[in-house]
Amino acid sequence: MEYIYAALLLHKLGKDVNEGNVKKVVVASGAEVDESKIKSLMASLKDVDIAKELESASLVSAAPAAGASADAPAAEKKEEKPKEEKKAAAAEGLGALFG
């Protein structure tokens, strides 16, 4: 994962995303370098427009994130009702114990 982050960081900074620069970023982060992973990443990124891919990825991921946050309050409301019912039932049980 650190190799992908290194490539994204280099892209963000406007630097050339190549084996040498990715290796420098990974070394600077304190991680051990695996040359085969760097070569594999560079082969995967060959002829890929990173900016275009990031733009299309952010558009796709934005819709589910908005939908998930809209569903979260509804899920919280559903969870609150059973808790209230449990508290009421527990209170009734205690009342029976003490008459």
Describe the secondary structure blueprint for this structure:
Blueprint: H1 2-12, H2 19-29, H3 35-45, H4 50-98
Helix pairs in contact: 1-2
Structural notes for this entry:
- The longest helix has 49 residues, at 50-98.
- The model has no long low-confidence stretch (mean pLDDT 78).
- This protein has a single domain (2-71), classed as Arc Repressor Mutant, subunit A (Orthogonal Bundle), CATH 1.10.10.1410.
- Helix content is 83%, strand content 0%.
- With 99 residues, it is mostly helical.
CATH class: Mainly Alpha
Give the radius of gyration. Answer: 26 Å
Oligomer: single chain
CATH architecture: Orthogonal Bundle
| Unreliable sequence segments | none
Sheet/helix structural class: mainly alpha
- Based on Cα principal axes, name the global outline: elongated
- Number of extended strands: 0
Number of helices: 4
Biggest β-sheet: count, sense, barrel?
A: none
Number of domains: 1
In angstroms, what separates the terminal alpha carbons?
63 Å
Q: Give the percentage of residues in beta strands.
A: under 5%
Order of helices and strands: HHHH
The residue-averaged pLDDT reads 78
CATH topology: Arc Repressor Mutant, subunit A
The percent range for helix content is: over 70%
Summary, kept brief:
By secondary structure, the protein is an all-alpha fold.
Q: What features would you highlight for this structure?
A:
single chain, about 100 residues, mainly alpha, Arc Repressor Mutant, subunit A, 4 helices, elongated
